[in-house]
Amino acid sequence: VLENQDLQESIKPQKVEFHSLNFNNTLRWLPGRASKAQDTVYFVQYKVYGQSTWQNKGDCWGIHNHFCDLTNETSNVQEPYYGRVKAASAGVFSDWNLSCRFTPWRETMIGPPSVNMVHRNKSIILKLQAPRSPYKRKRGSNIPMTSYYDLLYQVFIINNLLDEKHSTLVYEGADKIIKIKDLRPGVSYCIMAKTYVPMLDRSSAYSSRQCTVL
């Protein structure tokens, strides 16, 4: 029995956490200290905070992966959820390990906007588009993150005389089309943008750099 208890404890999944980008919500965990990848399988359940019954996630029942996509199961973004995982190896099951409470609206990371850049004369014109969630409208298009948050865009410019550390914030606001004027001909300029959520005081990562020579 002791051996079994030791095995139970040593295969128990560790660090069970939700990771979320634009409401793509994935439960991730680390294997227990004695888990051999080929012969340990995992079982995932989830529930809404306050409910008594756990739901099995069929696609993540007896899997070898260390992650489980719960995007569809956590689609009410204001609702708090829990996930939990247990492991089995050599006929022995570990105890469940529980995630922290996860509320998608509060905790998802928002991605950067997509940036389309054209230049005219001494100006650069940017078209920004908010990232989209995985959830669909009735017509079938994915709902943009602007439907869930008041988002601002932050636009940064780097000219080639400066290095990356010297990016300058040239715009912050909600406009999707932005014109940056009075730039110097013959100089290469690079643009990066972030989305910013004032209510949560949270910024996205930078978009990839787009560069042009005027």
Automatic annotation (TrEMBL):
Residues 6-96 form the Fibronectin type-III domain. It comes from Struthio camelus australis. It comes from the Eukaryota. The keyword Glycoprotein does not apply. One of its GO terms (cellular component) is plasma membrane. Belongs to the type II cytokine receptor family. Residues 108-212 form the Interferon/interleukin receptor domain. InterPro entries: FN3_dom, FN3_sf, Ig-like_fold, Interferon/interleukin_rcp_dom, Type-II_Cytokine-TF_Rcpt. GO terms for molecular function: cytokine receptor activity. Keywords: Disulfide bond, Receptor, Signal. This is Interleukin-22 receptor subunit alpha-2. PANTHER family: INTERFERON/INTERLEUKIN RECEPTOR, INTERLEUKIN-22 RECEPTOR SUBUNIT ALPHA-2.
